[in-house]
Design goal:
Elements (H helix, E strand, L loop, with lengths): L10 H52 L27 H4 L7 H4 L8 H12 L16 E3 L14 E3 L3 E4 L14 H5 L34 E5 L24 E2 L8 E2 L10 E2 L4 E6 L4 E5 L4 H8 L13
Parallel strand pairs: 3-5, 6-7
Antiparallel strand pairs: 1-2, 3-4, 4-8, 8-9
Amino acid sequence: MSATSRRGVTVVELLVVIAIIGLVLALVLPAVQAARESSRRASCENHLKQLGLAMANHEASYRRFPSGGWGFAWVGDPDRGTDKTQPGGWVFNILKFVEQGNVAGIGVGVGSATQQRASLTLVVQTPLAIFNCPSRRGLGLAPFDPVPPPVNFNVVPDVAKSDYAVNAGDFACSGGPGPLSLAAGDSATYAWADNSKCDGIAYLRSEVRFADVRDGASFTYLIGEKWTTTTTFDYGDDQTLYSGYDYDTYRWGKPDCPPVRDGGSFVPDRFGSAHTAVCNIVFCDGSVHAISYAIDPEVNRRLANRADHLPVLGGQF
């Protein structure tokens, strides 16, 4: 019998195999990442679709969109309805329309201010997946800035946050923490900022009706993704999603302020997103559009203003 020779794998052959595998991964991984981002973006669009429906159902029930609340030192009070006497913002006001009535009801009818503060502290630590874009962050809590201190809940290190903001128009009235007590806010002599020039859907103590959207529901922003920084402290993302009127859940289409991608210059008043080229926005008619960062700034401003009577052609966004 003749001896059978055995031949092993040479170093060169091994390196060739590794190089081929590396090349295949380099070709496949971008496609996998793109597919994942496409899925995340679709989930984001679905969240906005549901939020738009909730806003429409609120308007159908109360004949007005939810009020914008009092200021960032306040969160929603379950005993005060959804009109301009409600210190919490639009997010709190639509909770029952996104099947979160149990969260909105925490603290109803409790016996003392101390007990209610404890109840509302539990609320601000309750994240809701529908208010987060999966391209930016998952469900969870993030750092809270307690300066100045909150009025109707206790200071905690982390709170639930939102990646979405309502359209407050192309003009911003003054914000701030709001009054120091319910009695002060209810007083006829309290010096509220003038909101008469505001032209969005929700803002400081707003009571906007569908009839006020005179430019047409299909040509007016309702809720969109908000811009956040990725490198420094962001006072447009330092409060809870249940807060009243503030950068955290209100954004504007001010002149020359189109949506931008996360990061870069500090612009906490704009819409924007973690997506590569577009920002998702649901319009008042319930349709969700991918708004390009390259949108004409004037077109963006017109879409944010509910009643400037200026035309916007369908192909412009």
